[in-house]
Amino acid sequence: MDEVLVLAKLSASGFAVEHRRVDSIPALESALGERHWDIVISDYVLPDCDGLDVLSVVRRMQPDLPFILVSGGIGEAVAVDAMRAGAQDYLLKQNLLRLGAVVERELTKSATARALRAERQKLRESELRLHSILATLEDIIWSIELPSQRLVYLNPSAESIYGVSAEAFLRGEVDWLEMVHPDDRERMLRSLKEATTSGSLTTEYRVVRPDGEVRWILDRARVVFNEHGARIRLDGIARDVTQQRSSEAKLRQAAHFDVLTGLPNRILLNERLQKAIDAAIDTDAMMAVVFIDLDRFKIVNDSMGHDAGDELLRVLARRLSQRVRASDTVARLGGDEFVVLLPEIRQPQDAQAVCEQMLAAMAPPVSIRNHDIHCTGSMGVAVFPRDGRDVATLLRHADAAMYRAKQAGRNTICFHEPDQNPASGVLRLEAELHTALAQQQFELHFQPQVDLLNGRRIIGFEALVRWRHPERGLVSPLDFIPLAEETGLIVPLGEWVLRQACAQGRAWAERFDPDLRIAVNVSARQFVGSDVVRTVSRELERSGLSPRNLELELTESMLMHNVAQTVKRLGDLKRLGVALAIDDFGTGYSSLAYLRRFPIDLLKIDASFVRDIGHDPDDAAICACILAMADALRIDAVAEGIETEDQLAFLRDQGCRIGQGYLFGRPVPAEQATALLARGAA
Ligand SMILES: Nc1nc2c(ncn2[C@@H]2O[C@@H]3COP(=O)(O)O[C@H]4[C@@H](O)[C@H](n5cnc6c(=O)[nH]c(N)nc65)O[C@@H]4COP(=O)(O)O[C@H]3[C@H]2O)c(=O)[nH]1
Q: One GO molecular function term (predicted)?
């Protein structure tokens, strides 16, 4: 090949050529290895080899490098061989007119090919990255081709959730629908069908893994369309929500059932009673409400301890439940009070017969710690529609009848009498409460709240009211707060508590810690039926306590009654600058949706969940779930009722920052609380 001629032609065509001439295969190999070249122009006849040898080296070392054969006279057969072997073109030396155009064309082609290759490489890298991300996701990502409904993608996490590898699904060895719980299958098929028309899907269903374990899956999917608007794929993301489901179920259970006995609680009783009344009105039927209070329960509780009292309640709850029909409801209202709802009686005597059976069932002694305990009950009955046509009236009349039964010598059944003196016992207690207020028989005790992460440093106190009764000694709030609520006495009593707590809080904040918090319980009646905002503001002013030192504890259930009003009232309180806590959290509605609307600073995890952390995995899960909710709301959580180091360790591990309970200190009078503060820790 005439090198000079070729170079002249190229520069005549406008190329600025930088070139290297090589005459042997080794020299070619070294030149190719050295750098990137744009094109190889080769003669066919070379000293030690021919153009086809050169071509094969070029193709081996740089597959995409354009190769042009220029020769004095190669036959057609050789030219064809060269083109087959990958040469881009061949030219005769005598006629190099086309050279410029050919080189131009090949350079453009190879630049395009290079750009394409770089694009492909980028795409591959991005695919690998995506693949690696999808492989590490806990959620399942899936894609189904439409309309064939063929599974075209599934990430590896399918295996940990379904217990079957993604490959097995993709190869069609496992039918996904077969794994769906039989009870959910039809619904799922329907949902999928609907999704292809509506364009999206959000649904929950169960799968049964090959090992028999059932998992709850939350699946969300959407239809993907092509540019002509045709449905081509359904892409989805599925999440294992089994744990969440069981915590929610436990929370729901806790909202409606008594933790100690497993019986329906007051909320569920009220619901069922209302339903029964509605049904009885429709069918003109009769029904009965029986109020039961255990006789001498307090003596057992005080002399043998709470555990024995709890055991007694459990046994009696079981016995009562066994004596009624499946359609009846035995509920525990708290303490030693039970209510039985008999929705299907024909005459009041039917209720009498059931009550007698229940008394008989309670009669045999209960053996606790080798003691035979005899515990009887006093029963009061109200009959619908004769004694009342609504929930509150029926319960009140049954309660009043129960008080008469108690006065009549216990272990007795009394029916409501229209002109009965409404529970003289209650009246006496009410009168005593009035006197107690007037004579200042109440006192405040304080229970420390501590920082769990910081050496149990005391960060505040909960104020708890006590009644120093002239004859009965120190009375627990559980024994008089409900009546104070019912009679409205809670309003002046609550104001008294707030005043004392604010004054004490101010003294402590000044002397020990400007951030020390004082928590005060606010009852439903105070929150809904009085001007709580004005009272709080007045007491803050009177005491000089800074609002940020005051925390108001409100129960979950009272916030749910009138959500709009609650939101407003909480907002008003918040504007005063005080902190707001939800007490007994977990026992009510526990709805994250509502909580988000309330300006809450703290959740108090109810002691009933903390108590069983070590024994009941569900309770541990609930605590963890509540802590996660608090975290989601970016607020603090206080665990109540911590009694053991194990409970403390678990709660701390779950990220709980504040604790309260006998482990750190019981509620004590102000002087003892002051001593605790002076010592620096609980
Ligand atoms: N077993 C156990 N119990 C623990 C432990 N730590 C604290 N407690 C008890 O748990 C209760 C916590 O108060 P609460 O949930 O607000 O529950 C309070 C609150 O709802 C109501 N209450 C008390 N004082 C007031 C008040 O001033 N106003 C209103 N409205 N209600 C009050 O009475 C309820 C009972 O109060 P207390 O009998 O003082 O009972 C207190 C406290 O003594 C523990 O480690 N183990």
A: nucleotide binding
